[in-house]
Design brief:
Blueprint lengths: L1 E2 L1 H11 L7 H13 L3 H6 L2 E6 L3 E6 L5 E5 L2 E5 L1
Parallel strand pairs: 1-2
Antiparallel strand pairs: 2-3, 3-4, 4-5
Length: 79
């Protein structure tokens, strides 16, 4: 399943929590999490994949932290 760049970016931001989060930001993050299916759905999702900047395709493996990027004939894998 491919996610929009905005949804994927929001999901990545949700994965990084801060101790002193702004209450409004926390409320937005909670609404995004609910819209994506809730915390259980997030925790049970292993891969996130999305298109970004016209033709760049990216895959993030939440379990291992591996990241795959490709555009045209260029491919990079980060582990």
């Amino acid at each position: 399943m491919r996610l929009s760049a905005a949804t994927a970016s929001s999901a990545l931001l949700l994965a990084c929590s801060a101790n002193s989060a702004d209450p409004k930001a926390t409320a937005v993050a909670d609404r995004v999490m609910t819209a994506m299916g809730g915390t259980d759905a997030w925790n049970n999702t292993r891969y996130l994949a999305w298109d970004f900047f016209r033709g760049q395709y990216q895959i993030w493996d939440k379990q291992t932290g591996d990241f795959h990027w490709e555009q045209d004939t260029l491919v990079a894998n980060y582990t």
